[in-house]
Amino acid sequence: MIKAIAVDMDGTFLNSNNDYDRKAFLELFKKLKAKEVRFVVASGNQYAQISSFFPEIWEEITFVSENGGLVFEKGNLLIKKTIAKPIIQDTLTLLENTSYKVGIILCGVQSAYILKSENTVLKKEAAKYYFALKEIDSFQDLPDDEWVKIALQLEDKNAFSIIDLMNEKNNSQLKAVYSGNWQSVYPLLEKGALDQVFELKSKINKEMSAADYKDYYTKGYKTDVDQILIDDKTMSFIKNGVKESYTYQYKGFKILNYSKGNRGVRYLFESSDPKAGEFKYVQFSDHNISPVKTSHFHIFHGGESQEKVLAELENWPTYYPKKLTGFEIAQEMIAH
Q1: How far is CA 64 from the centre of its chain?
Q2: 74-100 per-position pLDDT tens digit
Q3: pLDDT per position as a tens digit, 229-246
Q4: Structure pTM?
């Protein structure tokens, strides 16, 4: 007998428009209640944010928020897993003094906190996920709250360096993890959502027509892996509607020198799971060697060897954050 149904929000329960069929779900929720099946929402986001998606029934849902740090039931705080203030303070000092550029959101039981001096882009992005958000002058003089998480904004290529640094310095008192939800652009290309990009490219470079560009990118983007989810050391690949998940170890990076004279870098990962098959070796590339902002990744995979995957230069499956719409991805590509 089914006692409960638990769902993630971003990229799972919510569609590409960051919403769901509310009327249909309310009818379904009535049926779940009649059968005494509990509905649980689990998310890394803040309780104030995820509960706002269910204005009519939020008091009847169990919410697991802040990556499990806070659990609410019937509008009341049921479980609270907090981090000691000295550990939080030491970690914030470490992050503020690192050579990497890191945006910090400090997550408490009552609210999330961001520096007044932080850039406007991060403030706007934070406001989407933290409905209870306050600006403070400094992380050295913390507000009267209890702490459940520190969320960071940084270049994806620096993520694993930051993770290693934090986990080494914290002596396992506070674990740093990486997560992400990436969508393939190939389905968008097939639907014609990227045609405007090819039209613009053909006007800039008249040596190729829009059709030529579409053919070129069709070969490059082609993949049957529609979505990749990353949660710490676990990567999940959604292929033809089937999800496969494996644990990976970071194996360093490889700088590639291309025939056109430019260079690129790939970050190498490997799974020891004998069932990983074609996903045993995974590589990330964003073209850049120096630390600059990246909006997408080319993600390669294979089952033979890292060298075999490195040799693939004609097909480069491309992934953008799942939260972006097709229109937003097209705009990013035009600007790229």
Answers
A1: 18
A2: 899 999 999 999 999 989 998 888 888
A3: 888 788 999 998 888 999
A4: 0.64
Helix (H, G, I), strand (E, B) or coil at 315: coil
Q: How far apart are CA 8 and CA 42, in angstroms?
A: 5
Helix segments in the chain, DSSP class H:
22-34, 47-51, 85-96, 120-129, 159-169, 186-191, 195-204, 210-221, 306-310, 326-335
How many other β-carbons are positioned within 10 Å of the β-carbon of residue 50? 26
| Alpha carbons 47 and 329: distance in angstroms, whole number | 28
Confidence of residue 291 (pLDDT cuts 50, 70, 90): very low
Closest CA to 112 of 75, 164, 149: 149
- Biggest alpha carbon distance in the chain? 66
- Beta pairing, strands 318-321 & 297-302: antiparallel
Q: Annotated catalytic, 145?
A: no
DSSP assignment string, 266-308: EEEEE---TT-GGGSEEEEE-S-SS----S-EEEEEESS-HHH
Sign of CA pseudo-dihedral 306, 307, 311, 313: positive
pLDDT in tens, 180-190: 788 999 999 99
Rg (CA), the chain: 22
- For 295-329, what is each residue's pLDDT tens digit? 688 999 999 999 999 999 899 999 988 878 888 88
Q: Name the active-site residue from 8, 90, 145, 231.
A: 8
